[in-house]
Amino acid sequence: MSSFNPLKILHIDLSRELPSIHPVPDIAGLFVVFWWQNIPLGHSWVPLSELPMSPVNITERALTAITPAVESYLMGGFIEVSTSTDSFSGFAGDIKTLTEMGKPLSLLEERIALSFKASKAPSVSVIVCTRDRPAQLARCLGSLQNLSHKPDEICVVDNASRSDETCTVTAGFGDVHYVYEPKPGLNVARNKGIRQSSGDIIAFVDDDVTVHGDWLDAIQGAFVDLGVMAVTGLALPAELKTQAQYLFETHWGFGRGYQDKVFGRQFFERFRSRGVPVLEIGAGANMAFRRRVFDDVGLFDERLDVGAAGCSGDSEMWYRILARGGICHYVPTAVVYHYHRPEMEAFHRQLFYYMRGHVTALLIQFERHRHWGNLRRMLLSLPVYYAGLMIHGLLYGFSGRKSTLKSEILGCLSGVKFYLNQKQREKCN
């Protein structure tokens, strides 16, 4: 494996005086996230060769990166994902535009805050499912303690840890509720957390994330619209120190952009015949639901996600919500920072289980709803996609994005086998 230099992550608040950026030894470049106060607006990859950067250079980078988000805010605040997710056109900026940008964004922020205050804030239970990762759990819980507004309840679900360290860490945070679930499986743990919690809103974060200070405000604010059944948010990388973390972020990252998006019936119907791309809605590391959703569509399918098929327990739930006519809302101001797996071996294993879970979810979605687009995606779209990558790899080499193809393809095949084995067990029982 070739040597890899890490990337430094830099957060720049455009409402403040812009700095100059100077080269840092032993890095490959920068991952720069642009904010307006607490509103994330875009990011840019800056190679080492472009450093140093002056405030003028940074302004030019920022204007390119934030244009889609700023346009969507100026045009009404969110995009209803239906026929197109392309950004609006016609916005052009310079340093004067950048300095004046705070006016519409501040007005938008004030309008959101006023509408939220005018409504009764729903109570929120935050659930963190974990297994044998006490250090990550402590970091996650520490960030939840630093929220600008505290949730009504924080619940740690210990999913069959082999030591008592998870319990010990949780006990160090006196107001955190500890629940033990002896049966392994992330969706098993999620369902236990739902049953043991009491909030009107059930929010989930993974133990390998930290949350932004205003994360809970953004989650609660999104549920002011009574039609919204599920909310997801932006997941930014917490570090990019290894090649595995870089590859994950560039090809598999949890970020779904900086535009506020609503996924509803139009989105579902547009893609139903081809397989609804529910993974576009967000990531299970940062999601929330109205409690009554679980009465309407059921709990998480325990055949899916870590400890079972390997993934897609979150997206299968979003699929069910959309199929019932519900709305999912992606809110980029609900920010978490995710620590990607640093080792290549763990990264390959992760992608194997991602694809195994994805294929299993497609079969479960067909089983549940008889929407043929799920089978089309599994039997046509995925094979064509991977055939194209394989041909490109044979011609130009299996590096970068193509370095994980074996793991992914084996994962797809394993997903079919896993589903059929589960159906066979059901028959035997």
Task: Explain how this protein is built.
There is one protein chain. The protein has 429 residues and is of the alpha/beta class. It has helices spanning 55-74, 95-100, 102-118, 134-145, 165-171, 186-196, 215-222, 243-252, 265-271, 291-297, 313-323, 344-369, 373-396, 405-428, and strands spanning 7-13, 29-36, 39-47, 79-81, 124-130, 153-159, 176-181, 201-206, 209-211, 228-237, 261-263, 286-290, 327-338. Strands 4, 5, 6, 7, 8, 9, 10, 11, 12 and 13 form a 10-stranded mixed β-sheet that branches. α12 packs antiparallel against α13 (373-396) and α12 packs across α14. The termini are far apart.
Helix/strand order? EEEHEHHEHEHEHEEHEHEHEHHEHHH
Q: Based on helices, strands and strand pairing, what is the structural class?
A: alpha/beta
Shape: globular
Proportion of residues in extended strands = 15-25%
What is the tally of beta strands?
13
Give the averaged pLDDT, no decimals.
90
Radius of gyration: 22 Å
Classify the helix fraction into a percent range.
40-55%
Oligomer: single chain
Largest sheet: 10 strands, mixed
Number of helices: 14
Which regions are unreliable across 5 or more consecutive residues at pLDDT < 50?
Answer: 83-96
Distance between the terminal alpha carbons, to the nearest Å? 47 Å
Topology, element by element:
Blueprint: E1 7-13, E2 29-36, E3 39-47, H1 55-74, E4 79-81, H2 95-100, H3 102-118, E5 124-130, H4 134-145, E6 153-159, H5 165-171, E7 176-181, H6 186-196, E8 201-206, E9 209-211, H7 215-222, E10 228-237, H8 243-252, E11 261-263, H9 265-271, E12 286-290, H10 291-297, H11 313-323, E13 327-338, H12 344-369, H13 373-396, H14 405-428
Parallel strand pairs: 1-2, 4-11, 5-6, 5-8, 6-7, 10-13
Antiparallel strand pairs: 2-3, 8-12, 9-13, 10-12, 11-13
Helix pairs in contact: 4-5, 11-12, 12-13, 12-14
